Amino acid sequence: MLLSVNIDEAGYSPDSTVLKNIHFSVDSGELVGLIGPNGAGKSSTIKSILGIMKNVKGDCQASNYAYIPERPILYEKLTLWEHIEFLLTTLQTDEKLYMTRANELLKQFQLSEFIHRYPESFSKGMQQKVMLVLAFLRQPDLYIVDEPFMGLDPRAVKRLLQSLQSEKERGAGILMSTHILDTAEKICDRFVLISNGRLIVQGTLDEIRERSGIRGGSLLDCFDVLTEGVSDVRK
Ligand SMILES: Nc1ncnc2c1ncn2[C@@H]1O[C@H](COP(=O)(O)OP(=O)(O)OP(=O)(O)O)[C@@H](O)[C@H]1O
């Protein structure tokens, strides 16, 4: 198991709960979609996994991971290529192979011509692509990806989906939060549905359809049925 999430309760302060009883795992070679409407608790779940949520009752175990945040985080004073060189200094890897892979990824994500520029001056989509390139270069056991589709053009989305697929085939596990349900439905092996800070259901699309009683329904249809009347954990 690459990720084991056991959150009994979590909140931004000791007296406010935003998550309750969130328990799930991610195995090698699987892409798990963390799904839920705005404010459901997806980012809070990810923060709990990353250890940056202060008030967590429970325990999350993650193997060597790359985190791709919703908003790109880049170094102001480094060019794109310097980001790549800097990452290399933190890894024990074959430099030649690494540089070859870096150039391939930069080409795939249409960034080759910008390597000597500062990502700070890039568009949001380009910055997001830099984050993806840096994560895929590392080839970690686990990817934790927060809302990756925002701001990406269709070609970049396609490249992202291809890269996720090949990383899965390599044996990586992926936890991906999104509310782009039609894409999630196509690519995720399993889903964890969160609403109002609670885990509503988890399983494959077929299992979720069965639980919601909508045969052949879309993830959105199932989600609507399953989240109806769920009380809020916040107090
Ligand atoms: N920094 C914070 N301080 C206090 N409360 C927060 C903070 N960030 C989020 N919350 C609250 O935690 C709850 C869950 O929010 P969270 O950001 O985890 O939702 P989300 O599912 O990621 O939503 P979205 O899809 O809009 O990104 C919300 O009630 C939100 O108001």
From TrEMBL:
It comes from Sporolactobacillus shoreae. Signal peptide: none annotated. PROSITE patterns: ABC_TRANSPORTER_1, ABC_TRANSPORTER_2. Keywords: ATP-binding, Nucleotide-binding, Transport. It holds the Pfam family ABC_tran. InterPro entries: AAA+_ATPase, ABC_transporter-like_ATP-bd, ABC_transporter-like_CS, ABC_Transporter_VariousFunc, P-loop_NTPase. Residues 2-221 form the ABC transporter domain. This is ABC transporter ATP-binding protein. It comes from the Bacteria. PANTHER family: ABC TRANSPORTER ATP-BINDING PROTEIN ALBC-RELATED, ABC-TYPE TRANSPORTER ATP-BINDING PROTEIN ECSA. GO terms for molecular function: ATP binding; ATP hydrolysis activity.
